[in-house]
């Protein structure tokens, strides 16, 4: 056997004929394999020889150490790339030793990891940073951040492995519409924050509502919702649900007599409401309405987008499901669109099955951005809570403000409810300017810091006049739902309070 040295560090062993044999030996610097395999996993969007080689090395048994250092380097690379997975498996095993006795390990293992995670991470702050990633992350990597897995499909070693996957004995993924490792880590994080058994992430908050209603409300069913809500949700319920024979009762948020009447006189499948609501920030007593609904066999779904899981955990108050537009506080940087449904696994599984059939998939790059945003969720929301409370108090005393809507103010009609079920009152303040349509426009056009835009919950403050932004095409609906020409919705970011206040003061001078 002839040995041909290509570089001082890379050696190819060949047969006497000079061609590379199947027993070719590649020797690399001790740290090369570790670096290559790690980088290949970190940057899953790069498809090339290095990635394929790194994956192959990591899947093979470690070579025996030898004096040349190549085998030892390879062994260290394999051990390093699987360290995170091995650590998580050890924690899960110690938390639930009986898992090995259960045939369907794919179902049993996550619950063990969740148990271990709950012992380790006791606060929303720690959960927002580590849940779904520190323990039990399925991607084998020593990267701190969860990698973006950009793939549309997943492969199996053989038919038996595929059969094992189909029958629940092998944990894997199959097709991008049915699941993705990056998205799975995100779903685990949200479940931990909401105290939910399961979460499914989808392409937008609006689609989360559509998927939930489509999966859980039967044809010919009846739903109850509130007058104050996101307009596009109402449009979908009014225009699309009747095509499936679904009827609807609309009540005012605080009208519990109307809710009871609807429950008594209809076979109600679901009560779907926001709390706080959009744009008047009305609050629903979740525990009360959960008991009312459940006594009649109806489900309760809370859109908690305005609260975020930092300020409110509706599932712990009795709600069956919680949905979020993750575009808002969850991601928090005005740079990605997504939504999710959290709750009991029995119900979320039905939404997930519908989602798998219909689509509406969250891109893994979007999942990564939301994961990254969630690491500062508790910090952002605490800052926004504080600034919004101060801003609401300031505005309520300003002579050019006619009315302020904010759950943290004693003047708010459901302040007593918000105090009992929320730990913070959110970063949105709605108010009515003491002026007409044109005066309110001049105010909006005079602010310098907030962006004049839709949406809310991001780091940048956003301000809008709903009569133009959301209801410009329907004055009739503005009148029905109380959207006055002088109404303002102000989403407070993470800027300094004094800067925002001074900006509003100078803008109010134009009214």
UniProtKB/TrEMBL annotation:
Keywords: Pyridoxal phosphate. It catalyses: O-phospho-L-homoserine + L-cysteine = L,L-cystathionine + phosphate; O-succinyl-L-homoserine + L-cysteine = L,L-cystathionine + succinate + H(+). One of its GO terms (molecular function) is cystathionine gamma-synthase activity. It is an enzyme of class 2 (transferase). Pathway: Amino-acid biosynthesis; L-methionine biosynthesis via de novo pathway; L-cystathionine from O-succinyl-L-homoserine: step 1/1. InterPro entries: CGS1/2, Cys/Met-Metab_PyrdxlP-dep_enz, Cys_met_metab_PP, PyrdxlP-dep_Trfase, PyrdxlP-dep_Trfase_major, PyrdxlP-dep_Trfase_small. Its EC number is 2.5.1.160. Gene3D superfamilies: Aspartate Aminotransferase, domain 1 (3.90.1150.10), Type I PLP-dependent aspartate aminotransferase-like (Major domain) (3.40.640.10). GO terms for biological process: methionine biosynthetic process; transsulfuration. The keyword Protease does not apply. Pfam families: Cys_Met_Meta_PP (PF01053). The keyword Nucleotide-binding does not apply. Its cofactor is pyridoxal 5'-phosphate. Belongs to the trans-sulfuration enzymes family. This is plant cystathionine gamma-synthase. It comes from Setaria italica.
